[in-house]
Amino acid sequence: MKTIFLIDDSSTMLMSLKSTLEISGFKVEVANDGQAALERVQQGLKPDLIITDINMPRLDGIGFITEARKLLRFTPILTLTTESQQAKRDEAKRLGATGWLVKPVGGNDLVQVIRQVLPGA
């Protein structure tokens, strides 16, 4: 079973995504901001895929991607955000994001993208 790590400061978004992904057969870990997520990775969490929001308190998604890439060089990281500025997309990509999804994204669409970036999912 593939593990997906969800990072978002919206508890509603986390619950909704977690439910959708678990129904689709994934194991799901969650964190409510980039700092908490980074601490989980530093403690040894090695997910198969990370999905992170960009705009969060303490450590935003861009900062998380920057730090996570030092520890998880090959893990796919998708951003899922309301942010649509091209400059933010370019920065996230440059720092190691695999892809960019704009909220809201439907459950079927999300699972389809995950299956594209996560072989064997």
UniProtKB/TrEMBL annotation:
- Keyword line: Phosphoprotein
Report the source organism: Acidovorax lacteus
Protein's name according to its UniProt entry: Response regulator
Output the superkingdom of the source species. Bacteria
Q: Does the keyword Mitochondrion apply?
A: no
Q: Which residues form the Response regulatory domain?
A: 3-118
Query: Which residues in this protein are found as 4-aspartylphosphate?
Result: D53
